[in-house]
Amino acid sequence: MLKLVDTTKKIIDFGLKLIRNGEKIKMKYKIALIPGDGIGPDVIAETVKVLDKVGEKYGHQFEYASLLAGGAAIDAMGECLPKETVDVCKSSDAVLLGAVGGPKWDNLPGDQRPERALLGLRKELGLFANIRPALLFEELAEACPLKPEIIEGGLDIVVVRELTGGIYFGEKGYKETEMGRAAYDVEQYSEEEVRRIAVVAFDMAMKRNKKVTSVDKANVLESSRLWRSVVTEVAREYPKVELTHMYIDNAAMQLVRNPKQFDVIVTSNIFGDILSDEASMITGSIGMLPSASLSKGNFGMYEPVHGSAPDIAGQNKANPMAAILSAAMMLRYTFGLSKEADAVEAAVKSVLAAGHRTADLVSSGQTPVGTNEIGNLIAAAIV
């Protein structure tokens, strides 16, 4: 056993030596692509363009498997999440998703709509933690809807959202009552579900500004009282991290009143869904916000926060930067390629600093840059 350990250490040391000497070690990664609906295919195409440039510059090989989910899968195969899609995702190193849904499928029963594919993927892939950074780019400060004095010095918030529990996955249905037909959805959390998401949040806070805000509705909901109790227990394991509890209604207000008070926000599925969208808008545009959905280990599914925007699909108007920044998160969190992730983020910043803006970011009098063009500019800026 000692000999095996020693041999393993030598292999690791040799690999580190190669890296230190600046030699390129070619790595191969298998990425499951789910372009999805609306502008999903538009933004994923530009993201692949950037990833290919990263591979070329840093000596990696990215292999892609294009899969169906959402409305595209319904139209082609009669179901929103085919088994083949799930199987290929499970055999891949990571999943990169564009967007799903659209008014075309709004009249379908709830369990058959495109959005159910997201819930299915999260459950099948064990994706329990959704990480949504809300970073205000200095170059886009003028697009922020808040007063300049509120955002002075910038914003850097991370929303950690529990993803596979709560009301979205609880018991649901219809029943007859004396007041007519009624519908119900059950919010339920176990101690372990809360504990594991709290650990993710506290671990992240330790690498940032050591502050966690846990958002709940413990003055009304039993599930929130359990949530608060478990988060408080986890906090004792992180004495260097400051924990604050906040009710959801107050948190929604404080995000626009004093957003700089937040570092890491941890909350339930439904509250995180709402707060992360709010946080994204105060940064200037939902088209700039990436997200990562992680399981135990390094596996993850990465997707832009924005929706499918079918009204501009295929018109070279979509902003692909959230999808590209999601790929940067994939490079960092799943593949461990921090240098490459930094290069992608730096390329986005440099393109913005040069004054290039997509339609959702332009100010009065500016000419927007198209989806394809912004993708080309970012790829060219990879160094």
Summarize the structure.
By secondary structure, the protein is α/β, with parallel strands linked by helices. Helices cover 41% and strands 20% of the residues.
Outline the structure in words.
The protein has a 10-stranded mixed beta sheet, with helices on both faces. A hairpin with a 2-residue loop joins strand 6 and strand 7. The protein has helices spanning 2-20, 40-58, 71-77, 83-90, 116-124, 148-151, 191-206, 222-235, 248-257, 269-281, 321-333, 338-353, 371-380, and strands at residues 27-36, 60-66, 94-99, 129-135, 156-162, 172-177, 180-185, 211-216, 242-247, 264-267, 290-294, 300-304. By secondary structure, the protein is an alpha/beta fold. Helix 2 (40-58) packs across helix 11 and helix 9 (248-257) packs parallel to helix 10 (269-281).
Strand and helix layout:
Layout: H1 2-20, E1 27-36, H2 40-58, E2 60-66, H3 71-77, H4 83-90, E3 94-99, H5 116-124, E4 129-135, H6 148-151, E5 156-162, E6 172-177, E7 180-185, H7 191-206, E8 211-216, H8 222-235, E9 242-247, H9 248-257, E10 264-267, H10 269-281, E11 290-294, E12 300-304, H11 321-333, H12 338-353, H13 371-380
Helix pairs in contact: 2-11, 2-13, 7-8, 9-10, 11-12, 12-13
Task: Name a few traits of the molecule.
single chain; Isopropylmalate Dehydrogenase; 12 strands; 383 residues
